[in-house]
Amino acid sequence: MAILLPPLKNTVFIQLLRSKLLLLLVLTVCCTPPEDPIKCSSSQNSNCTITNSYGVFPDRSICRAAKVVFPTTEEELISVVSTAAMAKTKMKVVTHSSHSIPKLVCVDGKDGLLISTKYLNKTLKIDKESMTMTVQSGVMLKQIIEDAAEAGLALPYAPYWWGLTIGGMLGTGAHGSTLWGKGSSVHDYVVEMRIVSPAGVRVLDQDHHSHDLNAARVSLGVLGVVSQVTLKLESLFKRSITYLTKDDEDLGDKVGEFGRQHEFADIIWYPSQRKVVYRLDDRAPSNATANGAYDFIPFQPTLSALLAAIRITEETQEALRDATGKCINGQLTTFTLQTTAYGLTNNGIIFTGYPVIGNHNRVQASGSCLNSLQDSLITACSWDPRIKGEFFHQSAFSVSLSMAKSFIQDVQKLVDLEPKALCGLDLYNGILMRYITASSAYLGKEEDAIDFDITYYRSKDSMTPRLHEDILEEIEQMALFKYGALPHWGKNRNLAFIGAINKYKNATQFLNVKDTYDPNGLFSNEWTDQILGLRDGVTILKKGCALEGLCICSQDFHCAPDKGYVCSPGKVYKDARVCARKSNN
Fold it and tell me: CA-CA distances (angstroms) from residue 479 to 39, 133, 475, 491, 531?
């Protein structure tokens, strides 16, 4: 199918077309599910490669392994791990979705073993009396939500994208948004876990093995293979959601208070537009009419031809340094999302007005672009690497609530200096701000914080600098080094992990458990050793390394001096070292 478009300079037309098509696609689930991240050259599942759902890791490599196995039971899993451990074979666990950006799933070299949890995908038990649910580690969040709801139960907080496995969420510390109760991190609702490691099968619970459980709750995949997880649930409830758009002038003053006022609060920030969208999201009375549903627009299937047109437009704007064009497109994109209530509907079909009231399981998470079993790539998830669609960097870090106001004000100072510099973020729905509470997990959050998720354009050419690259790099370094932010383990570019392990007071306890479970480091790889501080190499110094976040520039050749980008100090955070265009200095 082809879509005839006017010249690409007419970007307003493209965005209006996208708006109309997105509205039409609310009713469809015609799409191609993502490919399996593992590809092997033989029917024996040998000579394999592994990547992530975006098709590439931060250094653009694809990792190799000698073989992949697909256990379906814990018994099979024990046999696989035991055999590999006796042969001292390196192993890594890979999920069906493989959504982590860093190289957590790579085995060192090409002789290692990949253990896929693709078929460890069963809900094993739901106990209504104790309000617990036991699942295998490859079960997707979508299945957890649906199976729990059938039993009248709910996992109260979770990520918004349902294409994640429980094992993957625990491995990287995935979370939703709240400051209430135990907090928004999925791992804080784990009451029991079974892990198959080279040292044997471990059964961990919060009453008798709290030390080990606190290590395993956020494991980075280095303790072994999670076999089963038991989650503490609660009775299913209803929620009432309203999005409220305001100026961002007092965002710094409101950010802490807002999170305590509303149980499921989050914030979408459009710094370039000086706008902020507050999500007023709370439990609704049990007798409230609740037919509402949530199918987040960017997670819906989108026409591949349309995604290609949008990507070509952004590439053209980057090449022409057309910041004004990005600002116009960004405003149209946010207008589309706001007028369609971001994918909320009052009756599962159309949006008629706020508040939208729905059962928790219908508004908690979404991802309809994963639904279809069709083979044609007519529509797809927008980041599917098989099509010409989104290709992006993602920086995600948690700033302590006590420092959030100052960080926000520093970002606003940068916008004052470069008003158009962050327009590109609006094409990716701005900055998503979610609340997280302190966790007992050794590699969980150290204190109550707000997570800033920033998604932005990435060139297909690793040596091509981005428009206003320096501003986003300064924000990234400011958060991590001036304000001591903690990086999300499953996202980010390399530089976010520089010295990160030293920010965790219980890092030593985690490493002690790691040594006990896997004394020979068979589940570790070069990357996990680097981010855990066990070897150097998080920073990769080479020509153009700062463009991809593989390093913080210290010399001009770390940027792109031949294209006018040199290493310069930050504009607000003077200790930052960023790739700035010479004419901007």
Answer: 37, 37, 6, 15, 18
